[in-house]
Amino acid sequence: MAYEFITVSIEDAIGIVALNRPKVLNALNLALIDELVAELERLDRDPAIRVIILTGNDRAFAAGADINEMAEESAISIMQKDQFAVWDRMRLISKPIIGAVSGFVLGGGCELMMNCDLIVASETAVIGQPEIKLGVMPGAGGTQRLTRAVGLRKAMEMLLTGEPIKADEALRYGLVNKVVPVEMYFKEALQLAKRIATQPPLAVQAIKKTVHKAEDLPLDEGMDYERNAFYLLLASEDRQEGMKAFLEKRNPHFTGR
């Protein structure tokens, strides 16, 4: 499909989606988010795709919401557009999404990053939620996901001051998985995606869903959910192939069945 604000490419079993508004540091307007979610859903339906990478460019993953678009909106007009409903659809993507981020990762850009399952950041990444400086607050999950990621005290500091943190601090707080030089962050994300793409797709998707359930469920309910997912995987052809390959001392060939 042809898009105005994102680009899409495929490498092996990896779908690569790049935000593409470089003149405004990939500021997130409504049309970009609509295109992005539509493409994520398309890749999620494609059986040939096993992992998705979401990225921007070296200067900016996304510097926040498009303030030019928002400035003249009223509370009623934004509510009527229900602009955050499309963000909720990202939670339903079953395949793992790896964020490859660099430069500005602010506001909506930080919220978008936190929708990813794994995150590789460049050393130049500057990450934060500066909405308070505009008289507002995050609306696409910033208060909720940031608190779960870095803890209450650090989230409160970042949200109430609007001050961002650098990549190395984000790594210490567990907000990102890895920090590498700027010339390496996309390559590192691609290598990670390729490693995951060799794993059995059904197990990958079951693990992603079960890990996210850990955020929402009490431990005993989460354990029940995990065990039921485990039992279902026992019925898969990939489970038979994986164990057979192990016993035969060869590499398995997983098909997603």
From TrEMBL:
UniProt KW Lyase keyword: yes
UniProt keyword list: Lyase
Lyase recorded as keyword: yes
CDD domains, alphabetized: crotonase-like
GO molecular function per UniProt: enoyl-CoA hydratase activity
PROSITE patterns listed in its UniProt record: ENOYL_COA_HYDRATASE
Signal peptide region: none
EC number(s) stated in the UniProt entry for this protein: 4.2.1.17
Entries under Gene3D superfamilies matching the protein: 2-enoyl-CoA Hydratase, Chain A, domain 1, Lyase 2-enoyl-coa Hydratase, Chain A, domain 2
PANTHER family: ENOYL-COA HYDRATASE, MITOCHONDRIAL, ENOYL-COA HYDRATASE-RELATED
Name of this protein: Enoyl-CoA hydratase
